[in-house]
Amino acid sequence: MRHLLFGERYLAMVDKINVHINKKGKTVIFRLEGRLDSISSTSFKQQFLEALEGEECSKVLLNLENLHYISSSGLKFFHSQTRELKQKNIRLIICSI
User: Fold this and answer.
1) Alpha-carbon distance 67 to 69, whole Å?
2) Better pLDDT: 74 or 6
3) Among 89, 60, 54, residue whose Cα is nearest residue 77
4) What is the distance between the alpha carbons of residues 59 and 71, in angstroms, rounded to a whole number?
5) Mean pLDDT score, 7-11
6) In three state form, how does the secondary structure of the chain look?
7) What percent of the chain has pLDDT over 90?
8) What is the C-alpha separation between 58 and 93, in angstroms, rounded?
9) CA distance linking residue 14 with residue 39, whole number of Å
10) Residues 70, 38: contact at Cβ < 8 Å?
11) How far apart are the first and last CA of the chain?
């Protein structure tokens, strides 16, 4: 468990990931914060698929600037999505690793 000072309070982060999703034109942008491990990758996968469902997009951008940890489960998800998006003619871009 990790504690972060937030104002006068402490916040405990236990295997947590925050996902911020925006759309600009035909690009869907995911900004990840926290940890992407075997537990949080399930939550992220669901949010990722729901955000792309029914969307017409040509690019998916994953901003990992505030991602502090990624496990093999998270890498496996990125790899599988690269193949699936490529079949749909959608380009996956990963930045700020």
Assistant:
1) 6
2) 74
3) 60
4) 24
5) 43
6) CEEEEECCEEEEECCCEEEEEEEECCEEEEEEEEEECCCHHHHHHHHHHHHHCCCCCCEEEEEEEEEEEECHHHHHHHHHHHHHHHHCCCEEEEECC
7) 60
8) 11
9) 10
10) no
11) 23
Q: How far apart are CA 10 and CA 13, in angstroms?
A: 10
- How confident is the model over 12-47, as pLDDT tens digits? 444 588 999 999 999 999 999 999 988 888 889 999
Q: Is the pLDDT of residue 63 over 70?
A: yes
61 vs 46: CA distance, rounded Å: 17
φ, ψ at 58 (rounded to 5°): -110, -15
Q: How many CB atoms lie within 10 A of CB 60?
A: 21
For the whole model, what pTM was predicted? 0.78
What per-residue confidence (pLDDT) applies to 35? 92
